Amino acid sequence: MHNLQAFNDMDREEAAAYWVMVMSGPDVPAYRERLFETWISADPDNAMAYAECLACYDSASLQEAAHVASAKSAQNPYFVWGGALAASLALVVIGGGLWSGGLRVPGTLPAEKAYTQTLETTPGQMLTARLPDGSQVSLNGDTQLNVHFAGRDRAITLKRGEAYFDIAHDVTRPFTVEAAGSHVRVLGTAFNIDLLPAGGAEVAVYRGRVRVEAHHETRDLGIGERVITDGALMPAAFDVAEMPDWQGGWFEADNISLARLVGEVNRFSSVPVRIDAPDLAARKVSGRFKVSETDRVLSSLKQVYGVRIKREKNVIVLTKSL
Question: What's this model's pTM, rounded to 2 decimal places?
């Protein structure tokens, strides 16, 4: 099989079994590696099926079935092997026997020992950290997240703020992020999550694909798509840059509430900014703001939107114009 359509015509488990057999070989052709990466990245469920099959591959029954199947077909051995492996996989899993396979998979990393860490930034501070699996996470100001790796689990809980994730590809260990009641699941990709002041989170994909689950709803997002999880998951397109704007201190506002813009400012400001009235907080604003420079944003709000600025000892208060 030399094209992706052949795998789309197969059961997911059968395709996964085929790839377990192929990728266990000592010399995998480059074109097969490319086709494998395309298939495994097309759907998170493909990766889970592959991981389950991979975990069972060392069982004696699976190896014997593969040997028998290979002897029955000389014309299309890969296809028959895949079917036999899938059937054997079902028997092994139902029987409750799981084994860890030592197969060669491009781009994967060995499972790390249990690892737990809390990463946190203060307003105006940014932090980039490399995780044990080779993934990298960048925290915006006033952000906190918890990291927990154990066995095949790679998990992060975003407690506060905003973070950009560049995930190391590992088909056997999906990477999950919990944020504001939503669940984001990936394999190897780059995406940004921003916890919103009013609740929910904005998830934006910069590379690869992610699966977002929130409020009993699921959406798959590709590059250049984002979704807000405070209601129905309605993906929207955005212009993909190399990195999120916030890493350069910028924020692109497109008809958002003033409250959200102020939330972005407070991730950088040494003096907190507050809004004194709910109707002012809900006012819609648009524009490109240098949120890392508080005075610059306040000046724009005053000139363009007529917002009054009241500076007190330990806080800056925004009020409606008279």
Answer: 0.64
